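Table S2 (continued). Query chain:
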Amino acid sequence: MAKKKKTKEDYYLASQWTLMARKLRRHKLARVSLFILAILYLGALFADFLAPYSLDEFDGLYRNSAPTAIYTIFEGEHVGPHVYKLDKAIDKKTFEVQLEPDLSEYYKIEWFVHGCEYKILGLIPCDLHLFGVGQGSNGGTGAKVFLFGADSLGRDIFSRVLLGARISLSIPFASAIISFFLGVAIGSISGYFGGVIDIVIQRIIEVIGAVPQIPLWMALSAAIPAGISTIKMYFYMTIILSFINWTGMARVVRGKMLSLKNEDYVMAARLSGVSTWSIIWKHLVPGFMSYLIVSLTLGIPGSIVGETSMSYLGLGIKSPATSWGVLLQEASSVTDVAANPHKLIPIIFVTITVLAFNFLGDGMRDAADPYK
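Corresponding output:
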């Protein structure tokens, strides 16, 4: 069947959202960013399956070890991807203890191996992992594969990055959604009603905006009870980030309300007896919803940096639970990083995620004006 050719009439009769989607598909950088974010969120969703080890697994022998070298040739023969077990050895010149591979036996990297138990999406018990290390060629055990190296306790950084992504990607997203609705609701009230209500709300926004973020994080974090569970800390961090980030959205919505509330279609709705809240939510807010979606997209990177910064400063998630901020906090020592640069790998994921959201937001911002 022949594909219907698009006409100018189809273009001018298309809805705002259809025009936005068309222009966004032509924005290559935004498409690539959306693809990267999809991979990151899918990786976080199925982190237990993709990660070869759990947060509780560690091996003191591999403390601060560099990323595991993967080989394919053993004694001149191609045996497939494999690793070697590490053994302690003493440097005869410096008398320092070093780790050297035991080349007498190789351990193949296998797909779909059984390991630590977990629950798929928190519901279905399972112990299957994407990859892992099998038995040695001579029946030995004990070899590990650490794609990003190990931390100071001998835990796999690759697994911790994947498992930490669930917190570092979900808390900012949840807080941005809450901030979005708070900002829209409070900004609508401020701009539509005006008067004393507008003055009070704007002064509150100015007070919150005048306080530097780090002292504000510290003050709010000090109110969190000590020794609470990870789930409760997750909830508190979401509330803290939402409380801080709603002000920008409220200002945007207030400005839109001030410019639209006296339009003819709004006056017609009032004369027809439409309630105030129906006018706000059914007539005014939909008129600039595309711009609100763009603001939401551009606000998520700030929340990601906020969560990472809070955890880095020790104000948020704490070990043994993990997030990208916790991983960076554990690598805060200059001497430690100089000796073990692989501990900075988590910052690559923070940078890529923030850039991807910013590029996607730029693409949506351009698409929000489809006639341009």
